[in-house]
Amino acid sequence: MASLIDRIKRLFKRNADKTGHTGSLNRSAGTRPTKEQQQQKSVPPLDRSEPPEEIQQRTTADTMASGTFTIQLRNDTNSSTVYGYITGLALDSGNRVFLLQADGKTPYYPTNPSSTGSKLEKNCSIPLGSPGNTVTCTIPRLAGGRIWFSVGTPLTFLLNPGPALVEPSIFNPADPNHYTNFGFAEFTYNAAQVFANISYVDFVGLPISLDLTDTANNVQRVAGMTNYGPQTIANGLIAQTRRDGRRWSSLIVNDKAGNLLRILSPNSGITLNPDWFQTYWTDYVNQVYSRYSSNALTVNTQAVWRDVPGTVPANASSTFTFATAGQPNPQPTFPKPSAKDIFSCNSGPFATGSNPETNVIIPRLSAAFNRSTLLLSDVTPNGTNPTQYYQNPTTNHYARIVHAANLDGKGYTFPYDDVTPDGGVGQEGAVFSFEPKSLLVAVGGNGAHV
């Protein structure tokens, strides 16, 4: 059974989902965000005699009363030309599109433009000043929030009718931000909590770290990378390509001068080049399906279904079938996944649907594939721990290398990187609090520390 803290964390995630957050919070719960929407875990001091449901109700009622929150942006680069941006959906203003203006305190709610690709009517580039400088910003309650940074050149945000915010894209070579060095962190701030994480699900860009301080002055930290971290990752990918001949080094993107700009995730690489990694997982997947034709794989759903056994029937050797655990839904089934399915976690057998049991198995099964743990234990995720992840020659080497480059090993490297054994240590690089005071987000990696 999950520990009390695990149960509190899940209640926390469910509450965030109810507010309409569309970022990373609910990945392991089975609600995969879209690409354009894309959480050290601790809890504040609580009365452990209270059931988690009452804790949630009390904290929701007692915290976040002001409706505004402080975010500090710090320049830890070597450049004096660094910009910050804060975007999201304003929860107290009808979920309207929100950007923070350049003064760091004035909200901007764009009006509906008459045409696609319209320019913003306000300046939303927040100058961070010289290296070491910190700018204090004030935001309203936001869902699907992102904190963006760019170095050297401001980012270009555009508007489509709706209004809908057109964010910088790494997938479109014609995007005005394509050759700009940028990155972002994800967050939500609602009536109950603040939740933030650093994300490498789509790409590795500028090094970013998080420090969340609560009202008791306790600090949670996600360390991020040093300023040399992206190059360390690039070097690791080049070395991996030399070992196995796969397209890992092709994930490296340089600017027009040949300098390292960003590193794509395998899923982003496949999005741009569908033939990449096509057969990469084939042998491993075949071994997994063969193993569980004579053994049962137990998935700890960490939900009402508890432990669910799955096997590969002799008459359907390409399909994993799981028990229904007494529920009225059809048996969850999983055909053999492709490389795209595994790296994206949201296509083929890993696409969520109407069966809730299937939707909670998907994160745990796809995480086990990315971490290559399905041949190590007949139980997932509780059968293995982070020291055993990525040890098979066929694994998500991008995730392995990116985790190793982060000083504390934390950060979302694929959509379900928040899948954690009961009582285990999260790998996703997140901070959260029911009683937050301020969030410090630093960019650049100079002076990065655990």
From TrEMBL:
Region (Disordered): 12-66
Alphabetized PANTHER family for the sequence: GLUCANASE B, PTHR38165
Top-level lineage group: Eukaryota
Domain GH64: 66-436
Signal peptide: none
Compositionally biased spans, kind Polar residues: 21-42, 57-66
Protein name: GH64 domain-containing protein
Alphabetical list of InterPro entries matching this protein: Glyco_hydro_64 (IPR032477), Glyco_hydro_64_fam (IPR037398), Glyco_hydro_64_N_2 (IPR042517), Osmotin/thaumatin-like_sf (IPR037176)
